[in-house]
Amino acid sequence: MAKRSIIIIVLLFVAFPAFQYFYSGKLNEETAKRTGFEIIAHRGVSQPFRTDHIDNQTCTASRIYEPKNNYIENTFASIQAAFAYGATIVEFDIRPTRDKRFVVFHDEKLDCKTNGKGKVSDLTVAQLKQLDVGYGYTFDGGKTYPFRGKGIGKMPTLEGVLRVFPNRKFLIDNKSGNNLEVAKRLAKTLSRLSISEQNNLFLWSQDIAYNYIHSKLPNIKRLLLPFDHQKKFFITYLLSIGLMPVGDAYKDQGLALPIKYTKYMWGWPNRLLNKIYGAGARFYLVVNDPGDLASISNIPLDGIITYDIEVLGKYLEGVGAYDPRH
What we know:
With 326 residues, the protein is of the alpha/beta class. 29% of the residues lie in helices and 12% in strands.
């Protein structure tokens, strides 16, 4: 009798996780009727680079692959091309300048990608406009620099981007973290926009900076939670074998997951999405390979995030009923 009980317990320990993993269930009515699909282009059209063994100090411009396009990230041309390829939202990075403005640039320092030296914040906009933002890009260890001389004067200001693309949606990545003085300056800059213009903007920022800006400009919201919050969500979900309740803390918040990790998610896709959407949250997948699009064509996502909009663009009309262009 004891042996039979042990066998039953063991089977239950095996069967329940297997059920949680393999049983996707059905979409509930609210999830199935979800509408809207955003295509978010990270840094516009850019140069892909090797991502192995990198940290915040790695010069990514020296790790690019042989260029397949002529665009430099975070420039007017890059942003325009991303929209032309089908993006509905373009993400770009901002840094504060010495004269209390903002330029569209990813790195804290200029040394990697430009012919300048030191921090972005040590120079004025006028000085930054003299630099070549394509200067440091090389795919062959410094033998050639295919963008050198092609990026002179092409570092945009935040105001310039919003002026040139007044009716477009943007995800602004505030690279200054929780620097409250920078947050106050950014809030003042964005306060000059109309309400309709503010409604087109989303902010990627750490909690202290975001909370300050959102308190002053409630129409500017987050598209996605910071990485540490998202990491906590997915790790907790995995450790709970999919039983984790998704509370009100995630209401109106966005979660994103690289498509390669969906295979580890309990009850993917239907039961996971029912849980996330039921809490009033949003869900996006990070997709860079056109071959992955067919597998998500009938999943009611809120959108995809891609680093390769120029590659995915021509395939996006096949995403499915949730693509707004269908």
